[in-house]
Amino acid sequence: MVHRPELHITAETGVLDAPAGLLHDGQDWHVFLQFRPKLSDAARWGHQVSSDAYGWEECDDVLAPQGAETQLRAGSVVARGDVVDLYYTSISAEGACIKVASIEDLPATCEEVSNEASQLSAVVGGHHTAVSDQAGVVNFRSPCVVTDHESGWIMLAVAGKTPSLHILESSDGLDWRYAGPLEFNGETGVHGEIVAPRVIRLRDQVDGQIYDILLITVEINGVDRSGYLVGQLNGTTFEVTHGFERIDYGHDFTRPRTATANLDHTHLFGLMNGIGRLDDPSTHKSLAEEGWANCLSLPRKVTLQGGRLFQTPAAGLVSAIEQADNAALWVGTLEVPQGEEVRIELVDSIGHTAAVLTHRGDLLELDRGNDAAIAPLSAPDTLTIIVDGSTVEVFADGGQVAMASRVYFNGSIEEFVVTASDGATIERRSEKFSRDARLSPWEGPVR
After folding, report:
1. Which CATH architecture has domain 14-313?
2. Multiple choice CATH, 317-438, 2.60.120.560, 3.30.360.10, 2.40.30.170, 3.40.50.261
3. pLDDT at position 117, please?
4. d(CA 382, CA 423)
5. Contacts of 436-440 spanning 24+ positions with Cβ under 8 A
6. Is 56 left (phi over 0), alpha (psi -120 to 50) or beta?
7. How many Å apart are CA 392 and CA 408, to the nearest integer?
8. Interval 346-360: pLDDT, tens
9. Cα torsion at 247, 250, 251, 252 (round to 10°)?
């Protein structure tokens, strides 16, 4: 399969709709997925595990529709002591509600995996309704559960026919009390409907203060824009310190999910699909030719610095690329004054330029032939490009800028063709291809 990435998470077959939850148990990474084994199937939850966040193994599915349920959607995964709780959105003819199931032995979900597709794990149980219609609010969905907030257990969820955000509270994660709608104090800079909310807490590495980070996806004219707000969540009011910032400027990144933050950093994944819930997977080249659609981004380590999130690939990327069959990495240190540019063409197996990345000093442009994604730059010095199957991910400004896009190559990435204008300089450059390390240091302008 030429389109399927090796280091990114995909469904073995069918359609990956969204990341459902992320957990690190101290040894392994566990990612739970909302997916459909076939295009016509009801959505359910899959489960994959990795020791290094790059080589992923399929486990048995953990959730599937039961009784009157027509489908299951994404939610949140939380450790409660040795028990792992799966909060999920249950959809039936009556509407949506939030249910919870429990895994008492997480490693057991990966020990004996069935050869049959869509087999449910026998160690998942305790299904019950956590939040249903109350206080005049209906159709609770997309829960994010946080266990380490100052007020104890909180749940941030979407509700209503028109999406709105709401807060619930609990002393134990089992019994939930409705607290009220989420309100904002301060300028958010958000325009559009907010979906798929997440909230985490991080310590700013500049001022040492602890902030709440609200990750949101905004739907605008059928296109998803994921970003974040920085501030303090006090009860049901979010005091905004820094307004909306894009979390990714590429064509295809939405609905991020994070592992539990340790205040200094967290890790996140996003769905590499810029349209989100309005997308038609039947139009995907990967589904038509290889039987799968959509993937998650690479895992990103996230820190807060000066009110902005910095994202870098999780540790182990270089060795993972060395062990892959169809991946490549380009890293450069650049000096690009205003009005100058560095152009990097991503050339595939038949000599076709599949995408072009252009660094213009204050802007970074990723053009895949029919449209260009543009990101602002503030400290134009470092640039990292990762190609894996039909994915391209870019990190710049030391992690202040990230761009994720799906790009279909003919075969695989074969070459990075780099040119620079007279006033631009590539001070250092290296590149690495799967099972073939090629280092190419440069001094002075590259033309």
Report:
1. 5 Propeller (2.115)
2. 2.60.120.560
3. 67
4. 17
5. 437/322
6. beta
7. 10
8. 999 999 999 999 999
9. -60
